């Protein structure tokens, strides 16, 4: 969980968070690197263990919500709500760094 995969959905999540920067600045690699560092910290400090686990399965390993639900013996809606809450907590933590 310390490494964030930028090849799968995790890269899309970072891109969505930094979308406004891409539109306003052609070279924002330093900003994106700062966002990656802050995201790693936020995942470890702000999220619950369950949220960390689901984010890892969804973004880093590329599993679908249905696959995560089956693997963890949960309802798909529980996975969806947990991922949404995790994204909201991350955004609340990172909104001042964007």
TrEMBL record:
GO terms for biological process: DNA-templated transcription initiation. InterPro entries: RNA_pol_sigma-70_dom, RNA_pol_sigma70_r4, RNA_pol_sigma_r3/r4-like. Gene3D superfamilies: Homeodomain-like. One of its GO terms (molecular function) is DNA-binding transcription factor activity. SUPFAM superfamilies: Sigma3 and sigma4 domains of RNA polymerase sigma factors (SSF88659). Residues 45-91 form the RNA polymerase sigma-70 region domain. This is Sigma-70 family RNA polymerase sigma factor.
């Amino acid at each position: 969980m310390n490494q964030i995969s930028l090849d799968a959905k995790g890269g899309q999540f970072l891109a969505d968070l930094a979308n406004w920067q891409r539109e306003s600045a052609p070279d924002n690699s330093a900003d994106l690197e700062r966002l990656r560092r802050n995201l790693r910290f936020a995942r470890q400090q702000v999220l619950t263990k369950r949220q960390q686990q689901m984010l890892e399965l969804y973004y880093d390993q590329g599993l679908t919500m249905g696959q995560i639900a089956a693997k963890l013996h949960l309802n798909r809606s529980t996975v969806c709500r947990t991922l949404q809450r995790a994204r909201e907590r991350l955004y609340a933590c990172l909104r001042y760094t964007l």
